[in-house]
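Board notes (copied after class):
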Amino acid sequence: MTAAPMSAGPTSTGPMSAGPTSAGPMTAASTTRPDGRFDPVRAFEVRALGAVQRVVVSPPLLRVAHGMSLFGEHAAGWLAIGAAGALLDRPRRREWLTATAGVAFAHGASVGVKRVVRRPRPTDPAVLVRVGTPSRLSFPSAHATSTTAAAVLFGALLRGVGGGVAVALVVPPMALSRLVLGVHYPSDVVAGSLLGAAVAAVARRAASRAATMSHAELTWRKTR
């Protein structure tokens, strides 16, 4: 498969549209490696992506997918929630700001990996591309990365929720929406979720260590 050099910058896909930009049977060109050999993994992912799109065809569900895409673009929706948490939950403002920084870092990490891997987004005629994207790069899904990080970090700050419950509630719908819109392969969203979870785990560990050190310093000052 040959293609023009890819860029992580904006594409010329035009305004976002709920309508498909491509449709047709899977082609050999889109399921071969650069050396011309058949890529069974890519072929499987294209078939899986097409199967998801054939199942999820309800206009209301497509509108929800578009809304989730807009919410998660550049992690803006999650960063807004983190900022609101820091503003409203003043006793735990530091925790909210730390969690929000973790989400921002997770998004940045996904962009960094994209630039290294440089995997192109789905272009097979069998895949319906239903939304515009700011980048032609696909692996990993930044939406899945930031959503998973936000679910873990913000969920831990929501009383009665917890990170595990938050992940179960928001990550699968976001991951599915990227497939429905035709802008990611299944492995993109899986890798994005794993990256987001890893960044969140590091962020939580760092925040816990910082809190422990702060408490120890406060205790030391009281005993002087």
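Comment from the instructor: The radius of gyration is 20 Å. The domain at 29-223 is CATH 1.10.606.20 (Vanadium-containing Chloroperoxidase; domain 2).
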